[in-house]
Amino acid sequence: MRLHAVRKVHGTGENAVTALDGITHDFPSGTLTAIMGPSGSGKSTLLHCAAGLDRPTSGRVELAGHDLTTLDEVRLTKLRRDRIGFVFQAFNLVESLTAAQNVELPARFARRRLPAAQVTAALDAVGLADRARHRPGQLSGGQQQRVALARALATRPAVLFADEPTGALDTTTGRHVLHLLRTLVDQHGRTTVMVTHDPAAAAVADTVLLLKDGRLTESLTLHPGRLAANTATIAGRMAQLEVA
Ligand SMILES: Nc1ncnc2c1ncn2[C@@H]1O[C@H](COP(=O)(O)OP(=O)(O)OP(=O)(O)O)[C@@H](O)[C@H]1O
């Protein structure tokens, strides 16, 4: 995935807000990138533009060989469905369906059938093969987010987008989910982009992009596995950004 000179202005006239002010960045395949920055710095807008949920005002977004900014709505929807996975802070599982049915749901919406083996493999990858018949209400928060991860990955997307994936979880459970996310990136080479406010969450990434006022101020390369040192570095940079 590649962003080139992406600008996004929300609203018009006096109400216009420049949320992204010329973002250029390559996201190498098989890497985990965290996006951080103060409130209002443009993180969500960047994620939405990169994932084809929102259209940039100008610039290009290339994903899996397509320029998202030139696709019509029908093709964009198909690309999102087939090549992009999403995980949000709220797990967004359907309460009346089992874990396995939740994993199958996006494919059903697309009028496709996900082979049972692929559903099982997705649940197995997140360590929940034995919970396939459980409904969300019978699962812990961390388990529900793991089902959401399995659902996002079942279609083997080119890019996985995660928006505050541990925001609704306690610290320990959140760490488990992040560890799992890291493992999935490493084992399946799944390009992943995660927005987070938490330096300890961003510490599992390969790269942290720091945003301020819609601009990319720094791209930090982290040391794999050195979570405490990475967390301290990120927290320090964030503190500098907040006062700058
Ligand atoms: N739909 C919208 N209409 C008008 N302005 C918007 C809209 N969405 C976002 N903005 C503005 O664009 C800027 C960037 O917002 P964005 O939500 O991307 O920031 P963020 O870094 O994700 O913030 P937070 O950490 O608080 O979630 C902010 O000034 C925000 O007020």
From TrEMBL:
Name the Pfam families on file. Answer: ABC_tran (PF00005)
Residue ranges of the ABC transporter domain? Answer: 1-238
The reply to whether Glycosyltransferase figures as a keyword in the UniProt entry is no
ATP-binding among the record's keywords? yes
* PROSITE patterns, alphabetized: ABC_TRANSPORTER_1, ABC_TRANSPORTER_2
Single GO term (MF): transmembrane transporter activity
Enumerate the InterPro entries for this protein.
AAA+_ATPase, ABC_transporter-like_ATP-bd, ABC_transporter-like_CS, ABC_transpr_LolD-like, MacB-like_ATP-bd, P-loop_NTPase
Could you tell me the keywords of this UniProt record?
A: ATP-binding, Nucleotide-binding, Transport
Task: Supply one GO CC term from the record.
Answer: membrane protein complex
Question: Which PANTHER family does the record cross-reference, listed alphabetically?
Answer: ABC TRANSPORTER RELATED (PTHR24220:SF685), IMPORT ATP-BINDING PROTEIN (PTHR24220)
The name this protein carries in UniProt is ABC transporter
